[in-house]
Amino acid sequence: MTDNPFFVQSALPYRLPPYAEIREEHYAPAFERGMAEQLTEVEAIAGSADPPTFENTIEALERSGELLTRVTTVFFNRASADTTPGIQEIQKEITPRLTQHADAIHLNQRLFARIRAVPADGLDPERAWLLERYVTDFVRSGAELGPEDQKRLRSLNEELSTLSTTFEQNLLADTNASAIEVDDAARLDGLSEDAVKSAAEAAKARGLDGKYVITLGLPTAQPVLAELTDRALREQIHKASVERGVRDNAPLVIRLAELRAERAALLGYGNHAEYVVADQTAPSTRAVTEMLGKMVPAAVANAHREAEQLRELAGFDLEPWDWSFYAEKVREARYAVDSRLMRPYFELDRVLRDGVFYAAHKLYGLDFVERPDLVGYHPDVRVFEVFDEDGSALGLFLGDYYARSSKRGGAWMNSLVRQSVLEGTRPVVVNNLNIAKPPEGEPTLMTWDQVNTMFHEFGHALHGLFSDVGFPYFSGTAVPRDFVEYPSQVNEMWAVWPEVLANYARHHETGEPMPQDLVDRMLESQKFDQGHGTVEYLAAALLDWAWHTLEETPADTLEFERQALRNAHIDLPLVPPRYRSTYFAHIWSGGYSAGYYSYIWSEVLDADTVEWFKENGGLTRENGDTFRRELLSKGGSVDPMTGFRAFRGRDPRIEPLLERRGLL
């Protein structure tokens, strides 16, 4: 196939993938050629007769696999954001092949010997750190194992990659199939007018004109439960949410956990959690266990107090599908805050331009120019060119904000082109959210949670856009999992910063700013329900931890889950985990295995950094420059905690987090 667009470097600005030219039949040949080319390059490096140097070994490896990187980046973003049956078939076939390919490199003994023989003397700090990382990666990938153990490792890795793909595809299918069909609009009482229109639009997209469809988001708690007055419908939605994946994914979960445990043992670790944490910023599994365990009693006590308040208001014993509804009633009664009345002030384009982009301009001097001439991978994708304060071009930002049946749940950021001096590339990044799309011509009105998520994901985007590293290995968000959420969590603070909030929170029809008393009540109301939020998060984190510190393989997924929550003293029937095992995509198909603790671990750094911004004047260019220079620009090119100390001047303190969570 001579016209395959992957076979040549993109001629578009910033090497944006040429989406208008890419078709499904291009992927498989590009993967085949890409893997073959990289193996040839690797063999030339491993078989070189020249003494190993940084340039002919490490730098050469960094340059290898250019075609494979191009197709892999485009394909897996497409598989997550806009899949098709054809894409899913390719994914099933290619994922284990890519695992075999990675093992062929990491278990190449001649290559590993050359890497270990590269002299470290005279290398600058980034090169020395890259050499150290390569040695570590190869060891963690089994390079020091004997032939029989390596053979078993290859088999484990291949099965793990296949099962992870199956889990992901099962979950997408089950989530789509579990959407709730509603015939009578009266049953949607309580929903805002725009939410009802979005439900009608979702039904129309499924060929159900005249009906309404409530689609499910990834977490257990579905946002509509806070507004629907029909208790039976709330129950139906909740049960559909928590039962996802039980039939097809329950056995996969056990097998995935079992395989990960065996692989960890093969590599010399007590369990999978030990294997993961050994390469994170957390000092040990014990440190993670202790931190999570210390937070449980206070969080559970807070949740019990909140439950009593809700029960008193409701006048009967609550069920899980009642919590959000009556929590909203408490907010209305105590703070005079009605989330439905807030949505008209959060129109998507205004939040993006006058909120997210405005904060980035004030803090970092960035400007954003929409480029309708540049095509994304789906008609909903918007492309923006990003400029630094001096007018120099920085990169491209793509926004893909609407939910669709071809997109997995949740919100995330991907790098489509990694910045590096070595390759002469500037960053291209994309943010994905899952906001219900309104009928054509109608405004997209967001919930407060969606506003916060948009700021959060843009924090990841900034981490990618500000990358200023020599080598692609270190680009942007290529940092430990328990550090990567830190910059994105910090960016959430600007959603509520008075100057920023006043700039974007304007009524979509009148342009009037959100009344200050409503702003004040909204911010005050955020303190309520912290117990519930912390417990549902901790329950998920501890469930992840239990699966990856197994001592023996469980017989039943749901029984193991129940016992794990009981053992952690966080088995509150009213507050189920944010994700149950059978739809916990983060840990089974999303790279967060034994790593969901990362959000709270990173939040320690985040809360401490928010204090720093406040102590130093908040939304100023000087503060932005400092944060960018010391942290965001570094990517993975320095040890993360060394970078934090350079920025903060000391180790992080946990007290700001405990105060934020109401745990002091």
TrEMBL record:
<keyword id="KW-0862">Zinc</keyword>
<dbReference type="GO" id="GO:0004180">
    <property type="term" value="F:carboxypeptidase activity"/>
</dbReference>
<dbReference type="GO" id="GO:0004222">
    <property type="term" value="F:metalloendopeptidase activity"/>
</dbReference>
<dbReference type="InterPro" id="IPR045090">
    <property type="entry name" value="Pept_M3A_M3B"/>
</dbReference>
<dbReference type="GO" id="GO:0006508">
    <property type="term" value="P:proteolysis"/>
</dbReference>
<keyword id="KW-0482">Metalloprotease</keyword>
<dbReference type="GO" id="GO:0046872">
    <property type="term" value="F:metal ion binding"/>
</dbReference>
<keyword id="KW-0378">Hydrolase</keyword>
<keyword id="KW-0479">Metal-binding</keyword>
<protein>
    <submittedName>
        <fullName>M3 family peptidase</fullName>
    </submittedName>
</protein>
<dbReference type="GO" id="GO:0005829">
    <property type="term" value="C:cytosol"/>
</dbReference>
<keyword id="KW-0645">Protease</keyword>
<dbReference type="Pfam" id="PF01432">
    <property type="entry name" value="Peptidase_M3"/>
</dbReference>
<comment type="similarity">
    <text>Belongs to the peptidase M3 family.</text>
</comment>
<dbReference type="InterPro" id="IPR034005">
    <property type="entry name" value="M3A_DCP"/>
</dbReference>
<feature type="domain" description="Peptidase M3A/M3B catalytic">
    <location>
        <begin position="225"/>
        <end position="662"/>
    </location>
</feature>
<dbReference type="InterPro" id="IPR001567">
    <property type="entry name" value="Pept_M3A_M3B_dom"/>
</dbReference>
